[in-house]
Amino acid sequence: MDEKQLIEYLQPVIGYFGDNPYIKALLVFLISLAVANLVAAIITRLVKRLTHKTSTSLDDKFITLLHRPLFWTVIIVGSLAAISLLALPDGLTSSLRSAANTLLIIMWSLFLLRFMRTLLKTMSLRAKPQAVVREQTLPLFDNLVIVIVLALSIYFIFSAWHIDMTAWLASAGIAGIAIGFAAKDTLANLFSGVFILADSPYKIGDYVVLESGERGKVTHIGIRSTRILTRDDVEVTVPNATMGNTRIVNESGGPHEKYRIRVQVGVAYGSDIDQVRDVLMDVATHTDQICRDPEPRVRFRTFGASALDFELLCWVDNPELRGRVLDVLNCTVYKRFISESIEIPYAKQDLYIKEFPGQGVEK
Questions:
Q1: Of 216, 211, 206, the residue nearest 247 (C-alpha)
Q2: Among 155, 262, 291, 296, which residue has the fewest nearby CB atoms (within 10 Å)?
């Protein structure tokens, strides 16, 4: 319903207040304000009462987001109807109408943007592993929604001010070709970001090791770059073109997020290897952060130059725990070996002097 239809509909009511345009305009505005509050009350009480009975919370969020733009739409339409009764100059009326339409476009664009992002987030939380919209691809669709809604909003705002977009679109096409050549590296990052989000070699929260040696947790996957927070709490920003064309080790990948740590220890030749196995297994079993499935295990690796080399293999729930658990295990193994009289040898060399220089030479 536009302002002219609204005035025709309210004519039987406002006709009782004479022919003064200012009184009629004020009356129309007050009526629109009352209708806006009535609509808000209906949404708040009646509709919310119905949506609370459903199993999903999406409709509740939809009603919450719809409340504000619907309220202000009724007021703006009523304000336009009131302005049309004042018989203002055509130029001023047209400008006010364009400004009001711009406000409506902005409000409904924000509503559409927020609702679509809420819908995508809900879909990602309930998605199956192979679904199109899932946690890994959510940033991609979020960015696409922002771009589409922003482009449509700009187009409708220009239309509201009666600006011909044909010349602008033609100029944008020519400028796009020039920008494409000038920003080929940026476009490479853009397309690599799309492929990373679609292919999901890693996701937010994963621990990755770059080919250059940096290791950390992925905190953000954008269209242009990926951000990694190292264990030193230093954020590393890597262009997506680099991430898409380099070898990356995803420590959180595989059938589960658990990460295996290795404690390498050597014992002296002549040690009881069964005792060494029992001590290492007992240390792993009584460490809280160690997973019970898969079970810890001990491997006798090799006969070293000065030691029998053993390796304790055990798993932790998250790669983030690797450093602190390895510290606990090393400390505990060392103390237990001392208490169990198991010798940890160290590299040493014995030097035998057959004779001193000059010895045996006649003076």
A1: 211
A2: 262
